[in-house]
Design brief:
The complex is a heterodimer of chains A (194) and B (401). Chain A is mainly α. Chain A contains six helices and no strands. Helices cover 32% and strands 21% of the residues of chain B. Chain B is globular. The chains are: A mainly alpha (194), B alpha/beta (401).
C-alpha cells in the first residue's frame, strides 16, 4: 500500500516536488509586474503616491477574508491546509492579487482615493456576502463545516466586491472605471483561480 | 535496594497511599484541568500482579537531552518497571510527532543534528541497564510533524529517515527500538506485550492523506481482524490522531491571538489536522465503524493535542471505548471540557497502562509542573531539572473496564 502516491490533494510524488513550490514566487513576481504595468499609466493622470498606498492598505485588509474564502473554496474541492507553507503560498498569491486589484482600481478611477469609503464598502460587502453565503450554504450543505465554508466564501467575495464598488463609485456615485476594470481584472483572476 | 523496592519508592508508593496521591492532585490542579483523581479504591499496583506495562508518550519531539525533566523521569520509571517485571514485559510507545518541526531531515541537511538529538533523547528511555537487560522496547509511531506536515515524497522521506535511524540503533545494540507501521503504510502492526496486551500501531497521517478507498478498506479489515483475534489480550489502538479531544485540534481555539482567523479556519474545516476537516471526520467514522464491527478496543491512545486527557467515548447506548490523549511530552496546549471527558490536565507527562495478570488494566497518568516542561531557557538548568523531576508524580489513576 503506497502512501503518498494518491493523496487527498491529488498530488503525486512528482507533482509535489520542490519545482512546483519554486514556481510560486515566480508567479507572484509576474503578477506584481503585470499589476505595475497595468497601473503605471494611471499615475500619469495626476494621482499621488498616497492614493496608491491607501489602496494598498485596503488591499491588505481585504486580502484576509478573501484568502480565507479562497481557502474555504479549495477545501470544498478537497485541497486542505496542511502546513504553514500552504498558508504562506495562498497569502503570497491571493494577497498579492487583491492588493494589485485594489491599487489598480483606485488609480484607474482617476479620482482621489477615499480610504474611508473603501473600508466601509469592504465591511458592508463582507457582511452582506457572508449572509448570502451562509444562506446559500444552509440550503446546499449538510455539514456544519460546509455552512461555515459558504459563509467564508461569501465573506471574501463580499469584501472584495464591496471595496472595489466603493472605490469605483467614488463620492459622487459615478462609476468611471468599467473599461479599466475590464482590462485589469482578467490579469488577476487566473491567479486567483489557480 | 531491590528493583521492586525501587519501584515502590521512586514511584510514589503506588500501593501504599492512594489518598496521598489524591491530596497531591488537589494541590496541583490548574485552571486548565478537568476532573479529579478518579474513582477511589483503585487497587494498588503490585509488580507481581502486572503482566505487562505499556508507557504512552506523545509529541515528545522537542525534548532534548538534559533539558527535559520528563524524559529523565520516564527513563527512571522504565528502568524500575523493567527490573520488576519479567523480560520483554515493558514497552514504551511514542505516539507521534517524535521530531519537531518537520521530521528527521537527511544527513547533511540543516537541522539534521538537532533532529537526531531529539530522537535519541526519546530512545534513551529504553537504554538503561535494566531496560536493556530485560528487553524493554520502544515503538515510534509517525505523526503529522514526522511527515513534515506534508504528503507525498518529501514527507515519506522524513518518515523513512526516522525508520532508518531507529533500525541502525537497534542493529548496533544501542536500544530495542523501531518505527511502526512501515513507512508509507497505514498498519496496523500488531505488537503483543506479555500475555495480556496487544497494541495495534497505526499511521493516521497516512489515513488523512490517502484517497484510495481500497487501501483503507484493507487496513480496516486488518484492524478488525487483529481486534477479533486478540483472545485474552486487551487491545490498545495506538495512533497519533485522537478520535476525541478537548484540545485545539478538537476545537478549543482561542479567538483573539489570531483575530479569529484560526477560529474561522477551524470552523470551516480548512485545517486538515483538525477534527472539523472532512478527512479527519472520515478517519473517525472509519475507525469507529471498525470498532462497531469487531467490538471496541480497550482504549485508543493518541497524542496530537499537547495535554493529558481521558475521555469516555460512546459507540452506542451500551458500548464505547476510552480515548487517552497523551501528547504532553515536550509542549503544552490548552484543554477544555468536552462531552465524555473524565479527566484532563495541561501539564507535561505521560501515561502508563498496567495490564494485570488477572485481566484487568489500570491506567496511571504521570505529570509534572507545567512551568518545568523545558529547562533550556532556565538560568540554572540543573536546578530546573531537579525541580522538574521532583514535580513529576502520579496525578490520576483509574481501572479501565
Amino acid at each position: 500500500m503506497g502512501g503518498g502516491t494518491a493523496s487527498r490533494n491529488g498530488w503525486t510524488d512528482s507533482a509535489h516536488s520542490p519545482v512546483e513550490r519554486d514556481a510560486v514566487p515566480l508567479r507572484t513576481s509576474v503578477l506584481l509586474t503585470l499589476t505595475a504595468l497595468a497601473t503605471g499609466p494611471s499615475a500619469v493622470r495626476g494621482q499621488g503616491v498616497d492614493d496608491a498606498l491607501g489602496a494598498a492598505l485596503v488591499g491588505v485588509l481585504v486580502s484576509v477574508p478573501v484568502t480565507l474564502g479562497y481557502s474555504a473554496f479549495r477545501a470544498q474541492t478537497g485541497d486542505y491546509v496542511w502546513n504553514g507553507r500552504d498558508v504562506g503560498r495562498r497569502v503570497a498569491v491571493v494577497g498579492t492579487a487583491v492588493v494589485g486589484i485594489s491599487v489598480g482600481v483606485a488609480l484607474a478611477s482617476g479620482e482621489r482615493f477615499d480610504l474611508g469609503d473603501a473600508l466601509v464598502g469592504a465591511g458592508v460587502g463582507a457582511a452582506a456576502g457572508a449572509l448570502v453565503g451562509a444562506g446559500v450554504a444552509q440550503l446546499t450543505s449538510s455539514t456544519p463545516e460546509g455552512r461555515w465554508c459558504g459563509m467564508l466564501m461569501g465573506l471574501g467575495a463580499g469584501a472584495l466586491v464591496g471595496s472595489v464598488w466603493a472605490t469605483v463609485s467614488g463620492s459622487d456615485g459615478e462609476s468611471v472605471t468599467a473599461p479599466a476594470l475590464a482590462v485589469r481584472l482578467p490579469v488577476a483572476l487566473p491567479v486567483l483561480a489557480r | 535496594m531491590t528493583a521492586v523496592g525501587r519501584v515502590a519508592t521512586r514511584h510514589h508508593g503506588l500501593w501504599l497511599l492512594p489518598g496521598l496521591v489524591a491530596g497531591l492532585v488537589a494541590c496541583t490542579e490548574t485552571t486548565d484541568a478537568v476532573g479529579g483523581i478518579g474513582p477511589a479504591g483503585i487497587d494498588p499496583l503490585v509488580p507481581s500482579a502486572v503482566d505487562a506495562m505499556v508507557f504512552l508518550v506523545g509529541d515528545a519531539g522537542a525534548a532534548e537531552e538534559g533539558l527535559s525533566p520528563l524524559m529523565v523521569e520516564l527513563r527512571e520509571d522504565v528502568e524500575s518497571w523493567a527490573g520488576a517485571l519479567p523480560d520483554s514485559a515493558v514497552m514504551v510507545v511514542f505516539l507521534g510527532d517524535n521530531v519537531y518541526e518537520s521530521g528527521l531531515h537527511d544527513p547533511g541537511e540543516r537541522g539534521y543534528d538537532r533532529d537526531t538529538l531529539r530522537l535519541h533523547t526519546q530512545v534513551r528511555a529504553v537504554t538503561g541497564l535494566q531496560a536493556s537487560r530485560h528487553g524493554a522496547r520502544a515503538t515510534f509511531i509517525p505523526g503529522n510533524h514526522d511527515w513534515a506536515n506534508s504528503v507525498g515524497a518529501e514527507g515519506l522521506a522524513r518518515v523513512r529517515n526516522m525508520e532508518g535511524r531507529l533500525r541502525l540503533l537497534a542493529a548496533d545494540g544501542t536500544a530495542a527500538v523501531g518505527l511502526e507501521p512501515e513507512p508509507g503504510t497505514p498498519g496496523p502492526t500488531v505488537l503483543d506485550v506479555g500475555t495480556r496486551a496487544r497494541i495495534l500501531a497505526l499511521d493516521t497521517h497516512w489515513w488523512l492523506s490517502e484517497e484510495d478507498g481500497t487501501a483503507k478498506s484493507a487496513a480496516e479489515t486488518a484492524m478488525a481482524d487483529a481486534i477479533r483475534s486478540a483472545g485474552q489480550r486487551r487491545v490498545l489502538v495506538a495512533a497519533h490522531h485522537p478520535l476525541a479531544s478537548g484540545g485545539p485540534h478538537g476545537g478549543t481555539i482561542p479567538f483573539l491571538p489570531t483575530l479569529g482567523i484560526q477560529f474561522l479556519a477551524h470552523k470551516g474545516g480548512l485545517l486538515v489536522q483538525d477534527m472539523t476537516s472532512t478527512p479527519y471526520r472520515e478517519l473517525i467514522q472509519d475507525f469507529e465503524g471498525v470498532f462497531r464491527e469487531s467490538g471496541p478496543p480497550l482504549a485508543v491512545a493518541s497524542g496530537h493535542d499537547h495535554s493529558l486527557q481521558v475521555l469516555d467515548v460512546p459507540l452506542d447506548e451500551t458500548d464505547g471505548y476510552v480515548q487517552l490523549v497523551s501528547g504532553a511530552g515536550s509542549g503544552l496546549t490548552r484543554v477544555r471540557p468536552v462531552p465524555g471527558m473524565a479527566w484532563a490536565r495541561r501539564a507535561p507527562g505521560y501515561m502508563r497502562l498496567a495490564f494485570l495478570t488477572e485481566g484487568g488494566v489500570i491506567l496511571h497518568v504521570v505529570a509534572g509542573s507545567p512551568e518545568l516542561v523545558y529547562c533550556g531557557a532556565a538560568v540554572q538548568v540543573g536546578a530546573c531539572m531537579s525541580a522538574g523531576v521532583d514535580s513529576v508524580h502520579v496525578v490520576y489513576s483509574r481501572r479501565l473496564r
